[in-house]
Design a protein that fits this description.
The chain is of the alpha+beta class. It contains five helices and eleven strands, in the order H-E-E-E-E-H-E-H-H-E-E-E-H-E-E-E. The protein has a single domain, classed as Pnp Oxidase, Chain A (Roll), CATH 2.30.110. Strands 2-1-5-8-9-4-3 form a seven-stranded antiparallel sheet. Strands 6-7 form a two-stranded antiparallel ribbon. A two-stranded antiparallel ribbon has the order 10-11. The chain is globular and about 60 Å long. The two termini are 27 Å apart.
């Protein structure tokens, strides 16, 4: 393999290399009101219990709903919802009912009061597990308490943000399982 020739790159644009996973829709509810926000900044923090770290900007309308209710649902859309995902991110729940505006179906959760989005591939019901980093970093730690997903496809076509209005679709699988030690899977 040959070394790759590089040049300086703007540090404020490194997200195009580092985006952690699929764009998700986070639904929340508080005092009879429900909302949906588009989120790209999240990360798996632990397997058991299943913990996910989520950056929620202090100006985001959903933030207070999640902080007060201490729960939400991470809904995982597929590529067929890409335009809707962007449109949801372009408006505020303080001005529009996003379930109605975008024709999405709210489904009652089993473990949380926040609604699931029926049109999404998977739904992860979450409770806020830790808020120690919220004030300084806007980072909520959520525990997945119930998950819903179909049996197939095993790897859906999710969308991933690359910055600058560009997305990529989860594509071809590369199976390197035979190179892993069993305890590392």
């Amino acid at each position: 393999m040959k070394p790759i020739r590089k040049q300086d790159f703007p540090v404020d644009q490194v997200r195009r290399f580092m985006e952690p996973g699929p764009i998700v829709l986070v639904s929340s509810a508080w005092k009879g009101e429900a909302n949906i926000m588009t989120m790209g900044w999240h990360m798996v923090m632990e397997f058991s219990p299943s913990l996910i770290g989520c950056y929620i900007w202090e100006q985001n309308y959903s933030r207070e709903m999640i902080r007060r209710s201490r729960e939400c649902v991470i809904n995982i859309p597929t590529v067929d919802l890409a335009k809707t995902v962007v449109e949801i991110g372009n408006c505020s729940g303080s001005e529009v009912d996003k379930f109605t505006q975008f024709g999405l179906t709210a489904v009652a959760g089993e473990m949380v009061k926040a609604p699931l989005i029926a049109e999404c591939f998977a739904n992860l019901e979450c409770r806020v597990a830790d808020t120690a980093m919220v004030r300084k970093y806007n980072l909520f730690v959520l525990e997945v308490v119930k998950a819903h997903a179909p049996k197939s496809p095993k790897y859906p076509k999710t969308i991933h943000y690359r910055g600058d209005g560009q997305f990529m679709v989860a594509g071809d699988a590369l199976n390197l399982r035979r190179y892993f030690r069993p305890e590392m899977l």
